[in-house]
Amino acid sequence: MFDTKTVSMEWGGKTLTLETGRVARQADGAVLATYGETVVLCAVTAAKSVKEGQDFFPLTVHYQEKFSAAGRIPGGFFKRERGATEKETLTSRLIDRPVRPLFPEGFYNEINVICQVLSYDGETEADMVAMIAASAALTISGVPFMGPIGGCRVGFKDGEYQLNPSMAEVAEGKLDLVVAATHEAVMMVESEAKELTEDEMLGAVMFAHDECRKVIEGIIKLAEQAAKEPWELAASDDKSAMKEEIRGIVGDRIAAAYDLVDKQERSNALNAARDAVKAHYAEADGQTTMTAIKLTKKLEAEIVRNAILKDGKRIDGRAVNEVRPIEAMVGFLPRTHGSALFTRGETQAICTTTLGTKDSEQMIDGLDGLSYSPFMLHYNFPPYSVGEVGRFGAPGRREIGHGKLAWRALRPVLPTQEDFPYTIRILSDITESNGSSSMATVCGGCLSMMDAGVPVTRPVSGIAMGLILEGEDFTVLSDILGDEDHLGDMDFKVAGTEEGITSLQMDIKVAGITQEIMKTALAQAREGRAHILGEMTKALGSARTELSAHAPRIETMQIDKTKIRDVIGTGGKVIREIVAETGAKVDIDDEGVIKISSSDLSQIEAAKKWIEGIVEEAEVGKIYTGKVVNIVDFGAFVNFMGGKDGLVHVSEMKNERVEKPTDVVSEGQEVKVKVLEIDNRGKVRLSMRVVDQETGEELEDTRPPREPRGDRGDRGGGDRRRPRGDRGDRGGDRGGRGGRGGGRGRDRDDKGGGDPDHMPAFLKED
Q: What NCBIfam families does UniProt report for this protein, alphabetically (predicted)?
């Protein structure tokens, strides 16, 4: 029934299997990719015609994780997968970025690439498997895809590169890098690193490229068995004559526009030139007008690229390795915990850092189960930042991607939770944009954290590099403008400290990026990063030693795990009481680590003292301050050390006879007590009479010492260990007790003398 085609290969210690023909047979191309026990289905469908007037390529990549893949049911109120999570959005972008440049120019048929995780083994990350499945599905679908591409993940530990490491291995190592590449060239790099050198990063990329070639060979073998007939593309007409005509109309005006340094002036001049082209072809049909507009943009790119390659002349007049003027300011906003305004040329970001407690951590519900992140970075790109009118609302894929890049760049320098037990949120609001706003977020975000007092290991800066490549001639550009990004061949972002790289992201628009070009770009980026770090240091060179007055204070204490239940109490009663009485927040984990937080240090001290009282053991002979919590006929119970209760017998309240405890104390009264005895059951006997209630100093005990408990026969009480049957002579007026002998003349509810059976053992002697 099924005409199934399969290719398998051993790769990175596991079997990679690509299968088609069994599932999703009505799609143009569908591949089931299995690596370990992680399985991803990718289905590709393409529209057979182009919508009239369409002049862009509508490629959409969707990556979705099915909770059933890990044997889980989604958390929360809705028990089905809903909108894309951050991870799903980022993985969709991860696949889209290397695939999009490999479609021919002028191909505008709509394409859907849908990747669904069907099985997840908890070790093999599904993003890389999905990328391979997408590449294979596109290759066999017949659409004009100039692939295939391969993809892999690389780790770095103990000086060795690791192919497709598990998430545990990535956490233990110094690198998490994902690479996509064709057989000839690297197309995409995404990474987070713990201050690796340029040579180590370049080596990782080259290692990954070699491994990607092995996957490409497997995809080609599958295509040889199962590929559909390739689509026939309409032959493109020669537009050279029309292009030269446009050059004659506006060529000089475009060149003059790119001599303008100010972005807005340049944009106005270019729009005027484009309007002139539209006016020239106003009487032509719509297709001709659309072609003229495209050729105008090509002419713009040609003018800019030739000026850079031949004359080293950039749009704003800078040298190819020159960074635009930088101005950095910290403490920009008065009430935030930390803030910075970072401006580089016409790119600007307001970054704020907010410190929170553990309950502010971000909860993430994914295939690996529930996890919590104490570090968040959110990036916003309003339309006014580029002087445009546009949608303003929930973040799009681009904003999520740029925020995650900055997050990766800054996370390696964060202090541990043990050293700095705060939840950290950075908010980056882009207020101007002409060039890399994600790298401005890295710089501004780092400054705002240092302004907030976050003890980062070292400051981090970031820079965006560009490339102009024609044949074997190339020029690498530092700190690219927006136009240089659009008209160039590479978007190469590098962030790091003075010690090494913390994040690298690269997107290539053309094939043929060599190792030499990448090495040149990394070296030039290092120089640019060092310059930017120097400018940042002028604003703030290291983290402030004091937190903002508006930030919460957090103190951490460690208790014995056996005491956790005492601090929490039945149903959380004790910990809720601590929070209600002191006003501080209290969090406790399964290891006995307690975090106490408040903006008021006195509240923290009160909660800490309370908890210490619960977990500490009372010492015989030591004086404590306590509170009367209950008064009974024979004395008063006093709560001390926060969680301990002891009895002050009526005879220990004063050095004189006390008729009723209420004559001396009242509930809620604060008293000073000395611990006289702790029995083997933990019951505590206290005394007020030997402590000065004003000063808390111990007084001399003028009473004769009590006799030892074991020898009391001379006090008329007889042997306390005698059988109950011998107790009948204790007074006939006490009423009958049935078969137990003796009598009890006082009813249980009569409070005149109390119930001796409910008294502590050490009090029954009285």
A: polynuc_phos, PRK11824.1
- Considering the domain boundaries, does residue 711 fall inside one? no
Angle at CA 294, nearest 5°, toward 289 and 295? 95
Q: Which of 539, 570, 597 is the last residue of a domain?
A: 539
pLDDT digits (tens, 9 = 90+) for 708-724: 554 444 444 444 444 44
SS3 annotation, 205-244: HHHHHHHHHHHHHHHHHHHHHHCCCCCCCCCCCCCHHHHH
Helix (H, G, I), strand (E, B) or coil at 78: coil
- Look at the chain and count its residues: 766
Helices (H) and strands (E) in the chain, counts: 14, 29
Give CA–CA dist 271/49, Å, rounded.
31
CB–CB of 348/397 below 8 Å? no
Structure confidence by residue, pLDDT tens digits, 244-255:
888 888 888 988
- The tokens describing 217, both together, are 């060979």
The answer to the question of whether 747 is labelled as a binding residue is: no
Residues 233-248: what's their mean pLDDT?
Answer: 80
Which burial class, exposed, middle or buried, applies to 763 when counting CB atoms under 10 A from its CB (0-12, 13-18, 19+)? Answer: middle
The residues facing 17 across adjacent strands are 8, 34
- The predicted-structure confidence for 216-226, as pLDDT tens digits, reads as follows 999 999 999 99
The DSSP call for residue 77 is S
Residue 127 marked ligand-binding: no
* Rounded Cα distance, 172 and 389, in Å: 46
Considering the domain architecture, whether residues 330 and 304 belong to the same structural domain is answered as no
Q: List the CATH number of the domain containing 179.
A: 3.30.230.70
Residue 687 maps to a domain: yes
Select from 120, 151, 135, 162 the least CA-distant residue to 12.
162
State the amino acid at position 411 in one-letter form: R
Kindly list the distances between the CA atom of residue 13 and the CA atoms of 118, 123, 221, 323, in Å, as whole numbers in the listed order: 22, 13, 20, 45
User: Chain-centre distance of CA 602, in angstroms?
Assistant: 31
- Report the interhelical angle of 263-280 vs 240-257 (nearest 10°): 150
Do the domain assignments include residue 231? Answer: no
Task: Calculate helix-pair angle for 515-539, 198-226, nearest 10 degrees.
Answer: 130
Residue 402 to residue 48: CA distance in whole angstroms: 34
